[in-house]
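User: Okay, second chain of the day. Same drill as before: sequence in, structure tokens out.
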Amino acid sequence: MRLRVVVYMVGLCFLASCNAKKTVVQKRKNTKTITEPKPKKLPSVKEEKLIEKLEKSKKNLNKTTLQYIEDYAPVAVNEMFTYKIPASITLAQGILESGNGKGPLARKSNNHFGIKCHTEWKGERVYHDDDEKGECFRKYEYVETSYHDHSKFLTQRRRYAFLFNYKTTDYKSWARGLKKAGYATDKKYPSKLISLIERYKLYEFDKIKKKDFTYKKEKINAKKNRKDSKKVYQVQKGDTLYAIARKFNTTVSKLKKRNNLTNNTLAIGQFLVIQ
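Assistant: Same drill. Structure tokens below.
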């Protein structure tokens, strides 16, 4: 009897030692990182002139929306030439879907169109509450990649194919067609897009010709340039780039270029070159 007990205990120890040597291996999902090319500087599409006209002709326009238009109008026009999607539609969707680029999803993932992961997405992802809690959304390194992905999203899905029968100047048909194709569940989605396009005259970007989408050398008056180059401004408490731009009859993008600014953050006492 004792012999049986000893044999039994030895067997248990042997099994325990074998199990202890086993390691648990968790299989990782094979995710492929997408390499995003650094965005290229694009030619002007007269966005600054349009914004100046809007500011003079209408009141109570959203300043953040105006800044969004100035930042991304050239990107939308560039996508229009490549994919035949009206620039006005792309811009209006970007404004609406991203909350002028200030929405939580846009800020943490540069996703300006609320495009979800879907099965084919191999890039980085973030999780955000939308129709359901914790839904998977695509994450981008650059906003421009989000615009490009939006264009591919519309061109590569059969349900949106009929939209490309409309002219790029027919933004109303495009807006209604997006709702018909199931892009959004909001019944007012078309009217919201059309309202944005008409309020901010985004349809002007649909009229840009490809031959005009090029860099143009500007004539510079050397004497005037030397004089203006000395004009600087010291940032005061409460100042913003937008307020300073309006004060000196210029634009935020010009101020950022002249001062090599990568964002809109200012420090009290900081000197800015105005012209």
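The chain is about 45% helix and 5% strand.

User: Thanks, on to the next one.
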